[in-house]
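User: Sorry, folds how?
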Amino acid sequence: MQNFVFVLDTTKKPLNPVHPGRARLLLKQGKAVVLKRYPFTIILKNEVTEKPKNITLKIDPGSKFTGIALVQENQVIWGAELQHRGQQIKETLTSRRQLRRGRRGRKTRYRQPRFLNRKCPEGWLPPSRQHRVDTTLTWVKRLLRYCPINSLAVELVKCDLQKQKHVGFPTRIIMMSDRLNPTWQWQSWEGLPYLTCSLLQAWPHGFFTQPFYPRTPEDLSKILHSEAKTYRIKQVHGNRILSPGEIIEETTDKSFPSADGLIANLEKQAIWVASADCTPVLIGDELTGNIAAIHAGWRGTAQRIVPAAIARLQAWGSVMENLRIAMGPAISGEVYQVSEEVAAEVGRSLFEKEKIDSLEGILKPLAKISNPPLLPDPKPGKVRLDVRRINQLQLEQLGIKGEQVSIAPYCTYQSPSHFFSYRRTHEKKVQWSGIVKIKNN
């Protein structure tokens, strides 16, 4: 594989990487000059207007080597392998320790041994591991400067949790991955982690994790806003959207009203949805301050629940360009196996105008879409379905731009330490996602 060449414009903003042959031509024609030798980067002399394509940074961490690859339209355009010095660092520290102990034994008074006054700072990692983290982060930040990366994929590494005495270790691993994704941040409450999205920074909100179970939305609302009033629903995998007033009217002593989405327009209203593998969606309007919380499973997505919630917000005065949308952790398309009939039912939501009814007429166009929501499955009659990608395509059809939407880079099925997954355990346990309206415009 031949690595592509990184390209910067006249303001040093990254553009789409180009093939080495194209780079040589630009240099020969005098349209560009070499900026860096490694990674090989050129900078253009003239201003250009080019829309960057979707590029994913993929990382395969290891104890001795870490693989890094940039993928564009299912093609690896750049790759590298980092060789870590973990063993060398360990041996150097061991040598230093032995020398110090030898000095004490010879009574040359180096220093007195310290056994009872040592305490590792919070978030401490052994130097050999810290070196792997720092080296990987350095290269990630370097690539972000030279390439328009818009998504990140890190291979999950299994480890022996029984040998890890430090209870904060799983949270520490999450915090490190946070540095790799600037749009999504991990927050902490009493040592428990939850996710937030920078698109919704104007509102108190959170995509809460497994450690918060079995706390209720009433408990979680106090974390986001001490005076917020909580509203929740009985989720039934449909596309019904309710406001707090409608929830109050329909709530009884025995149950909450049936729906899968909530909207709010009054100050200090906190709205919540539960999920395990389904997609939690939080929406905020930057102008009106109105909010929405949606539970978008495959059935709700097939019924276009997210566009339905946006239609309710529009009735309250929202405009498309003012909306900010965050899709939280859910099962990813890489592992979500469904029947072709289910995939067609969900995919049909993208072809309402064409009125395509045949199974093949729906599945084939979906597979040809850039960053397709359908992936092949080795089992006959089955496919892998990316429900969040379907919701993203529905939003694109409404005219919502890509920068208004963000998808959490976490899969509930593949992250057992942090998220419940019904597909993985078949347990009816959920994590909650909520948002609070704090201003009236």
Observations:
- DSSP finds twelve helices and 23 strands in the chain.
- The first helix runs from residue 20 to 28.
- Confidence is low (pLDDT under 50) at residues 160-180.
